[in-house]
Amino acid sequence: MTSATTAIDLTGRVALVAGATRGAGRGIAVELGAAGAVVYVTGRTTADSPSPMRRPETIEETARLIAEAGGTGIAVRVDHNEPGQVRALVERIDHEYGRLDVLVNDIWGGDPLTEWGVPFWKHDLGNGLRMLRNAIDTHIITAWYAAPLLTRAPGGLVVEVTDGVGDGYRGSLFYDLVKASVIRLARAQAEELRPYGAAAVAVTPGFLRSEAVLDHFGVTADTWRDAIAKDPHFAASETPRYIGRGIAHLAADPDRMSLTGTATTSWDLAKRYGFTDVDGTTPDWGRHARENL
């Protein structure tokens, strides 16, 4: 069993992780870079320009973490709601490398907008519609501009990052619609990418130890186990690098087309490819949820 992406080689590949400032996007970008890919990392939060998320993480930090992992990270500030900015980004990738092998759509920014525990007609309508715009329209805009470059040669991969792959309700109409729509996007893209030898897959992490979640529990990446006393289910959580390793392995898999059009999970990718999380564990949120929730 391998514990990192050292068993795979993405040297010569070019990836775009849209929404790589923090969380799963950052973990994915770092692992793609660690495997040898050149990774463009985009988001709205830079050292000089904070985003409405009001979080301290920046795309420059993500690029630095990629460099520390031995890879090449290129930070570009992009608001993926703005077609002109996305077009300029893809044109830059084409000019600098002439190819795009992996597109990861992880644009979100909807957590502060989600109102839990209220019926949809009491949810702020403006915030609900912004969630749809932030996490569905942005994915479509980015894929629309990236697809011509991605399909220039066979072997491309689009990853749509979601939350959950089952049919269960996710607790908020707007949140549920966003995450279910992202899965459908992957399935629809798969059909239209197939003739070009490119795959599209939706992937979900489990209980993610993102920066915001760690802050919520008042712990750090090193002291995260202290939060188990507050929420026992946190024992089954995973780092953002876990889904990152799964997607890096998927990108390197010559048989990736067997998964095109499907929705899969970080833990199922771990079983398929035999990797572990950064601490050597193999979290399985699906099994934990079935047995305990």
UniProtKB/TrEMBL annotation:
Gene3D superfamilies per the UniProt record, alphabetical? NAD(P)-binding Rossmann-like Domain (3.40.50.720)
Please provide an example of a Pfam family that matches this protein in its UniProt record.
adh_short
Instruction: List the protein's name.
Output: NAD(P)-dependent dehydrogenase (Short-subunit alcohol dehydrogenase family)
Q: The organism's lineage?
A: Bacteria, Bacillati, Actinomycetota, Actinomycetes, Streptosporangiales
UniProt xrefs under SUPFAM superfamilies: NAD(P)-binding Rossmann-fold domains
